[in-house]
Amino acid sequence: MPNPQQSRDAAFAELQAFVAVAEASSFVGASRRLGRDATALSRRVAELETRLNVRLMERTTRSVALTEAGRIYLERARAILQAVDEADREASSLTTGVARGHLRLALPSTFGRMWLAPLITEFLVAHPLVTVEAEFSNRFVDLVGERFDLAVRLGELSDSRLMAQRIGKRRRLLCAAPSYLAKAPPLDGPEDLVHHPCLVFTGFPTRERWDFASSDGETRRVTVRGPMVSDEAEVLVQAAVAGLGVLLATDWLLGRALSTGALIPVLETWRVTDEGAIYIVTPSGSGQATKTRAFADWITAGLQSPPWHFGIDRTTNGSSTGMKPHPDATD
Predict the structure, then answer these.
(1) Nearest CA to 186 among 178, 196, 176?
(2) Per residue of the chain (331 residues), what is the pLDDT tens digit?
(3) Is 124 exposed, middle or buried (0-12, 13-18, 19+ CB in 10 A)?
(4) 46: exposed, middle or buried (C-beta count within 10 Å: 0-12, 13-18, 19+)?
(5) What is the pTM (predicted TM-score) of this model?
(6) 4-93 CATH fold
(7) C-alpha distances in angstroms, 101 versus 104, 217, 280, 286, 292?
(8) CB 115 within 8 Å of CB 308
(9) CA 245, CA 251: separation in Å to the nearest integer?
(10) Where are the domains of the chain?
(11) Engineering a disulfide at 66: which of 70, 136, 156, 218 sits with its beta carbon 3.0 to 4.6 angstroms away?
């Protein structure tokens, strides 16, 4: 017994054969149009009539003529085939030509609001046929299961079948307010942090354990304490500006405060080992919709000269970069 897919395929083939024969008024003409054997088309039409239990055509040696049932069926069959053709064209157009359609984005909360929201606005102005639904959250979404077209993720990515494109670096920095440093104990190496109040972000993997590496490969781990622990990094920046202690945070979060001198870097000869990067992640690379490629290119170009590095101009007219499999892509 044929499976449901085989039955659907056979029914569609019968439909195509019937419409071609009806429009050509002969099996020979239909065979030339479809590039199929006339005998095979005759068999398809006969199978269709058997399945419907109705005669659709009167056959002669030279031509065929539709019965009343055949004329009614032809009208509906044409509409079905036209709808399929239109659906094929619409689906194909989404991967070629002008960007259009609805784009679902999963974006990191604070980074997305600060640096991606302006790029999204500019993208929509430049691509009026695209609409965007953006979720700003640190929730780890399932791109495929939740039908997101694209995500921007920060940090290090674990293995998966998704496609990831690294579009920028992310650096961790230690900093403090000048007012705090003016009255604080000496801060010459990571070990001195135990004598300083530190502001702790709970989103870090090691939380109160901060790891450092020197240029010559020496490593240090320091356990820190302080007056504030939070999962909201912007609150910690405000606390640092107010002089409450030393803050370990990411360069994109600190850019504005560093540019105004509200915060200044400390222990610059020591590198924080948790660096990571900024990634664009998509469910698939092949057959990717034009809207998704266009947005990925736009974001890539917009962050090419990081806007949090103040004094460096950034461009927003995205250029094609393509998506390549990344060994550390995650879902």
Answers:
(1) 196
(2) 556 667 777 888 898 999 999 988 888 888 888 888 889 999 999 999 999 999 999 987 677 899 999 999 998 898 888 888 767 766 666 666 788 889 999 999 999 999 999 999 999 999 999 999 999 998 888 887 788 999 999 877 764 667 888 888 888 889 999 999 999 999 999 999 999 999 999 887 778 899 898 888 889 999 999 999 998 889 999 999 999 999 999 999 999 999 999 999 999 988 887 767 899 998 865 557 889 999 999 999 999 888 888 643 333 333 333 334 333 333 3
(3) middle
(4) middle
(5) 0.64
(6) Arc Repressor Mutant, subunit A (1.10.10)
(7) 10, 50, 19, 18, 10
(8) yes
(9) 17
(10) 4-93, 101-170+276-302, 172-272
(11) 70
For the segment(s) 172-272, the CATH number from 3.40.50.360, 3.40.50.10950, 3.40.190.290, 3.90.1150.10 is: 3.40.190.290
Are 329 and 164 in contact by the 8 Å Cβ rule? The answer is yes
Residue 328 sits at the vertex; the CA angle it makes with 324 and 331, to the nearest 5 degrees, is 90
The first and second tokens of residue 57, run together, are 């055509």
Q: 226 vs 211, 242, 243, CA distance in Å?
A: 17, 14, 12
Residue with tokens 């803050």: 247
Residue 11 is encoded by which pair of tokens? 């029914």
